[in-house]
Amino acid sequence: MRKIAIGISSITVLFLIYYFTIGKQQAIDELKVAVDRELKTLQKSGFTIEDRNISKDSEHFIIHYADSKKIAKYLNSKNIEMSVDNSREFEGMRLATDIHYLDGLYSAISVDLYPISLSNELVESLSVADKKTMERIIKEKIVLLHVDINKLFNSFRGALKDIDTTIVSSDDNFTISSKGVKFGGDFDKNILISSYQKINRAEVTSKVGLRLLIDSSNGSYERGDTAYEYSSSYEIKSLVAQLGKSIKLSIDDIDIKSDGKTKDNMASISYSMKVSKVDIIQPDGNYMLNGIDNLMSVENFSTEALEKLTKVDRSDKEAVARVMEHLLSKDLTLKVDRLSIKEIKEPSHKEAIDGFQINASSNIIKPIDFVALKQNPISIVDYIGAKVHIELSDKLYIVLQKRPEMMILAMILKPISKKDKMLFDLDYTSGSLLINGRPLL
Q1: 23, pLDDT greater than 70
Q2: Selected residue with higher pLDDT from 48 and 6
Q3: Would you call 423 exposed, middle or buried from its count of C-beta atoms within 10 A (0-12, 13-18, 19+)?
Q4: pLDDT tens-digit map of 377-424
Q5: Cα(157)–Cα(150) distance, rounded to whole angstroms?
């Protein structure tokens, strides 16, 4: 046993000697080759690499967001959603990149990213004073992102440097703070298959009374075999938006979930949102919504058509029309399985009253005459079928009837009274609307 222990110890010592002399530098050289390969890919995908400086175990370069159209296509191929229009907003931006190799037990590569110039679109919108403020933010590296990539190159983790700074603007002073902004994820063959993000607290306040707050949020994402097979969730403990003392919106306990499934090149996506409480303060009084519950789904849409839609040039109307024709030729169905608010408190009532519940579905009625539709796009309403079921509490119905904007609608939509609820059933088919079984006109 003693000989075995000595043998293992000797092997361990020899390995450590090799690693910290020859092996470590060899590993770093291999990592540099991998980084060089990835940078060449970025250059082919719309980025340019500038001012590259390589040392023994680190390097520095600048990533220039040059061709927004190419970059959007590249990011979408990596399962990172980016439209061409959104990508254009970043064009011209430059990010400084500091890389350290084998920095710690976890990391093969550690990266610090920080902006050194803003996008063209943003710069054009800034005043002279605002440009000076942004120059200070860039100079002091107030916005800095740190990312670690593990030694197997299949996982990453990172964090945004905590921020606590005041920005002197031309028309206001803003205090920005963020704490505990972390993220991470896993890759498989360079495709993002899972991720998470966390924010302990992020807040923006201004001298004139503006306040935006996110308190304790967590999100996660897991991908299946395709981009349309996934599950995601996002939770926020508290969200606040305030303008002075007279206008304020606060939302508590937000829970958002979404998942997607596919079968035979057809996909279905569901989305749900639950909110514990919403408080609205405004000059004409205070409102409160309790127990918001929403479940929606889109069923039977062609993944092939959607892929084409994300890649098509939106300025090419003929191409867009062909893709939409493909998409609408399938059994596309939109459902609102549930949209409800348990209780509502509004200025005319001292106590909360019961709310409402809505269920609805809409589908495409085939066959569609696409030639006629192209000549008269408004005729799309002839190919839509929809059913809506609405339940209002009798107290809420009385409140709505008193509102001027609802009086005419209340005269047209005659409900069915059942216990303490008012019921509406709407059925729309080929331009004809039935309300509780009776034609509108």
Answers
A1: no
A2: 48
A3: middle
A4: 777 777 788 899 999 998 888 888 777 766 666 677 778 888 889 898
A5: 8
Q: 315 phi and psi, to 5 degrees?
A: -80, -15
Amino acid at the residue 168? V
**Structure tokens of 238?**
């508290």
Q: Give the C-alpha separation, 66 to 30, whole Å.
A: 28
Question: Which tokens hold the place of 280?
Answer: 């609205």
Who contacts 319 (Cβ-Cβ below 8 Å, separation ≥6)?
A: 312, 313
Amino acid at 150: N
Residues 234 and 220: their CA atoms lie apart, in Å, by 7
Q: CA torsion 187→192→196→199, rounded to 10°?
A: 120
The lowest-confidence range among 114-123, 148-157, 170-179 is 170-179
- What is the reported pTM? 0.78
Can you say whether the dihedral through the CA atoms of 56, 57, 58, 59 is positive or negative?
A: positive
User: What is the rounded distance in angstroms from the CA atom of residue 71 to the CA atom of residue 417?
Assistant: 57
pLDDT (0 to 100) of residue 217: 93
β partners of residue 196? 184, 220
